[in-house]
């Protein structure tokens, strides 16, 4: 293989902006088409599973989803639930309580509802909640906290990936000194890993400093751990260790557990027992949830081992691809599974994408105006020998250069 070109600079996170993540992850094969037709196009040829460097995971088509559920059911018949009680939903809740080390877990239809109900109930009669400026709660939940739950969100850490203890102390001091009405701060929440900062993982030390202080001061703590398994795979900090620093933790069932939707909220039994009534008030109580919870339970089993392999294989692939002339894949500071890919001018991304898809069922995302692309490592990698993926790139680049 050719030597890697030296001197390619690492991405300036703040200049380019983590917000650029969303448009960049649209796959070239899918651009402009509806999501469902994109997924149809990505359906692999028989015997060859697709590998994508775009999504959190395989993004099953309806046919793949049905096949998988059928396979799960054949191996161990799926037990029905009734308004989220019993059956496979109960089994998943029990498993989540175990892995997070909390007394109880509960299924909710979405992570948005899990986050909102967690901060609402943790806050009691208080009105203020400290949230990360770049968090899903602050930016992507349609101002539900303000409009539905009458909470005032105090965003911290603008223009950085995450806030630290000093930011928390300064914010509290500022509020105390500058506001006349002292309605209280009740809860501090953190998101980890951080979606809008390309999967940045907050160092455990920072989490411990913030949460220890908040506990001393009597504030409640919520963790948006939608992708906590990924933080854990890269940081080697267990899910239970992360969860132990918070009163409640939410984990998504569809980011890395491949369900169609759904969320788990974990915490003390007294707290979790208040949730069903709240879900009902919001109209979120659904008769059957087994199609989500059976899928999530299936993928929860062995997730740690599979991700150790994803990290190992992904690191190897990236290191080998970086040896190819004209390819630069760089890591985000404190990053997890999202990388920045830059190609030299003489490698046409569209041609490379087409080659990788046509010959190896490998899909890539799109580049932004500066030619930078997000390169996301996920479990689809495990269906291939890493050398095959590297070889596909090598032959693709050679054929483009002629
Ligand atoms: C960090 C984070 N939290 C919460 C959510 C909300 O999840 P849901 O789509 O289930 O409401 C998402 C979804 O994108 C997310 O990325």
Describe it for me?
The protein is an alpha/beta fold. It is built from 18 helices and twelve strands. The strands form three sheets. A seven-stranded mixed beta sheet has the order 2-8-7-6-5-3-4, with helices on both faces. It has a three-stranded antiparallel beta sheet with strand order 9-10-12, with helices on one face. It has a two-stranded parallel sheet with strand order 1-11. Helix 10 (204-217) links the parallel strand 5 (185-191) and strand 6. The radius of gyration is 22 Å and the shape is globular. Pyridoxal-5'-phosphate (PLP) is lined by residues 110-112, 115, 136, 191, 195, 224, 226, 252, 263.
SSE diagram, text form:
Elements: H1 13-16, H2 21-24, H3 35-41, E1 51-52, H4 62-75, H5 87-100, E2 104-108, H6 111-123, E3 128-132, H7 136-139, H8 144-147, E4 152-156, H9 165-178, E5 185-191, H10 204-217, E6 220-224, H11 228-235, H12 239-244, E7 248-252, E8 263-267, H13 269-272, H14 275-281, H15 290-300, H16 303-321, E9 327-331, E10 338-343, H17 349-360, E11 362-363, E12 372-376, H18 386-401
Parallel strand pairs: 1-11, 3-4, 3-5, 5-6, 6-7
Antiparallel strand pairs: 2-8, 7-8, 9-10, 10-12
Helix pairs in contact: 5-15, 11-16, 16-18, 17-18
With strands numbered from the N-terminus, the spatial order across the biggest sheet is: 2-8-7-6-5-3-4
End-to-end gap: 16 Å
Number of strands: 12
Report the bound ligands by name, code or SMILES: pyridoxal-5'-phosphate
Q: Which blocks of ≥5 consecutive residues have pLDDT under 50?
A: 1-45
Task: Round the mean pLDDT to the nearest integer and report it.
Answer: 89
Order of helices and strands: HHHEHHEHEHHEHEHEHHEEHHHHEEHEEH
Helix content: 40-55%
Shape: globular
């Amino acid at each position: 293989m050719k030597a890697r070109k030296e001197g390619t600079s690492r991405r300036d996170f703040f200049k380019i902006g983590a917000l650029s993540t969303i448009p960049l992850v649209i796959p070239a094969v899918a651009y402009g088409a509806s999501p469902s037709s994109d997924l149809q196009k990505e359906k692999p040829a028989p015997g060859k599973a697709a590998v994508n460097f775009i999504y959190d995971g395989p993004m099953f088509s309806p046919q793949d989803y049905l096949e998988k559920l059928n396979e799960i059911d054949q191996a161990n018949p799926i037990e029905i639930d009734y308004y989220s009680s019993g059956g496979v939903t109960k089994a998943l809740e029990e498993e989540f309580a175990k892995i997070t080390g909390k007394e109880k877990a509960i299924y909710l239809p979405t992570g948005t509802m899990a986050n909102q109900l967690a901060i609402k109930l943790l806050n009691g009669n208080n009105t203020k909640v400290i949230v990360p400026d770049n968090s899903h709660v602050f930016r992507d939940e349609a101002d539900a906290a303000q409009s539905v739950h009458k909470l005032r969100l105090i965003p911290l850490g603008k223009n950085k990936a995450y806030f630290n203890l000093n930011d928390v102390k300064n914010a509290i001091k500022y509020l105390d000194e500058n506001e006349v009405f002292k309605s209280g701060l009740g809860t501090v929440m953190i998101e980890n890993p951080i979606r809008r900062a390309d999967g940045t993982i907050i160092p455990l030390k920072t989490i411990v400093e913030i949460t220890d202080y908040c506990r001393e001061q009597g504030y409640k703590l919520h963790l948006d751990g939608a992708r906590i398994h990924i933080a854990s795979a890269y940081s080697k900090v267990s899910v239970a260790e992360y969860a132990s620093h918070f009163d409640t933790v939410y984990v998504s069932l569809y980011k890395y557990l491949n369900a169609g939707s759904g969320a788990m909220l974990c915490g003390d039994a007294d707290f979790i027992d208040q949730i069903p009534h709240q879900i009902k008030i919001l109209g979120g109580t659904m008769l059957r949830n087994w199609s989500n919870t059976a899928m999530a339970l299936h993928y929860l089993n062995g997730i740690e081992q599979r991700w150790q392999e994803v990290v190992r294989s992904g690191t190897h692939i990236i290191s080998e691809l970086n040896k190819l002339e004209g390819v630069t894949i760089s890591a985000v500071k404190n990053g997890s599974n999202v990388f920045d890919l830059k190609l030299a001018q003489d490698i046409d991304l569209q041609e490379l994408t087409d080659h990788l898809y046509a010959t190896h069922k490998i899909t890539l995302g799109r580049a932004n105006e500066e030619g930078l692309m997000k390169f996301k490592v996920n479990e689809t990698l495990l269906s291939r020998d890493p050398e095959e993926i590297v070889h596909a790139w090598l032959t693709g680049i050679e054929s483009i250069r002629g």
